[in-house]
Design goal:
elongated; 248 residues; mainly alpha
């Protein structure tokens, strides 16, 4: 199966929100035969938002990673597809290829723990230093009396604010340490893409009616014309996809 035919099938999958595995199209030779396969898929596969999101996400993964189309399924694990050495660049390229918002890479658990430790140590040192400086400079009594209790209460509040601000600062500034894929499989990534970009996959009308057979044929012809730069009169049921239309 050549690059043109793969691109054509992927476009059809995305437009109709169906799956066209290689075994279903291996014996397809004419436009009419492909049309019948599309019809059979539409009878059994509902047009849902998750399928639209999956085909769009899969196209980006295939284009960026240079993988065969059939190798990306909802159950496909993503970790082996993104080598750690190039993970950030590849993940960013996938986001650009989808044209959508995708989940960011996450911090490894070890770094999240270290950020908490750093924030705790920094906040503790700052609060204790401020207390010691006040005691030395003004001779304030920090014993557990009325003033001392008030001071320690304010110190605890200040420590909590400092700790939270420091942790947030580290999480925002140390983005270069984000190297962990936030999802396990391509299906999980699809669900997150759908959640982050609901308007991109919502039907134009709330109660969108199923396409008629004539509408499906017209849409299929439009896909052929747009993908292969052909005239509509060339797209007839008996036209062979390889010989007549030049799809390799």
């Amino acid at each position: 199966m050549g690059l043109d035919s793969v691109e054509l099938l992927m476009r059809i999958e995305e437009e109709f929100s169906i799956d066209l595995p290689d075994e279903d199209v291996s014996n397809v030779h004419t436009v009419g035969e492909l049309y019948e396969v599309v019809l059979s898929k539409l009878k059994t596969t509902p047009d849902c938002l998750s399928s639209r999101a999956f085909y769009r996400t899969r196209r980006a993964l295939v284009d960026v990673l240079g993988l065969p189309r059939r190798s990306i399924r909802p159950s496909t694990y993503l970790e082996p597809l993104f080598p750690p050495a190039h993970r950030k660049q590849l993940w960013s390229a996938v986001a650009d290829a989808t044209g959508l918002t995708i989940p960011q890479l996450q911090f490894p658990k070890i770094w999240k723990g270290r950020f908490i430790q750093i924030a705790m140590i920094f906040s503790t040192i700052l609060v204790l230093s401020a207390g010691i400086a006040l005691h030395i400079s003004y001779g304030l009594n920090l014993e557990p009396q009325m003033f001392g209790l008030l001071y320690w209460f304010m110190a605890i509040v200040f420590w909590i604010i400092l700790f939270s601000a420091s942790d947030v600062f580290l999480l925002r500034r140390m983005t270069f340490l984000r190297t962990e894929i936030p999802v396990t499989s391509a299906g999980d990534l699809t669900q997150m893409v759908l959640a982050l970009n609901p308007s991109a996959f919502t039907p134009e009308t709330p109660n969108e009616k199923p396409l008629t057979k004539d509408q499906i044929w017209i849409k299929l012809v439009e896909i052929f014309c747009d993908q292969l730069q052909l005239d509509p009169d060339e797209i007839v049921p008996d036209a062979t996809i390889a010989e007549d239309l030049g799809v390799c």
